Amino acid sequence: MERVTMYGSSQFDGSAAAFMGGGFMPTQSAHPPSDSSSISKNRETRCLFPLTVKQINNLASNDESNFIIDGAEVNNVTIVGRVSHKEDKASEHTFLVDDGTGQIECTKWVQESLDTEQMGEILVGMYVRVHGHLRGLQGRRFLNVFSI
């Protein structure tokens, strides 16, 4: 009886040639530059940090816009939590997200009608994952949301 495989020898024969190309190449640096001024100017070095509200509130900061965790500058964060308050205006949607460790104010600015439609689906009590730019003002921390 002849055994038929899903992958013929021409598609995948287990050789290293099947894994060549694409993805992370050894010549690319896995570490951002050590100069902090070049980090803030280079958008490609920015990462999306998964944090809790408590971690956000405890972040070290050298002013109200530069937040540091483990020596890396934190700009963009993602949090998961329950919407505990929501206020809709013509130019912005403001809501509080509670992740069990605290609450953080989030603002989604209206740039097109799709933003208003998307925010219309978000209800108080609903769990959301928020991606946003971390900001600070007068000792308060909040997110400028770019994705929900």
UniProtKB/TrEMBL annotation:
Listed InterPro entries: NA-bd_OB-fold, NA-bd_OB_tRNA, RFA2-like
Domain of life: Eukaryota
Pfam families per record: tRNA_anti-codon
Localization of this protein: Nucleus
Keywords: DNA-binding, Nucleus
SUPFAM superfamilies attached to this UniProt entry: Nucleic acid-binding proteins (SSF50249)
Domain OB: 77-140
Nucleus as UniProt keyword: yes
Full protein name: OB domain-containing protein
Species of provenance: Salix suchowensis
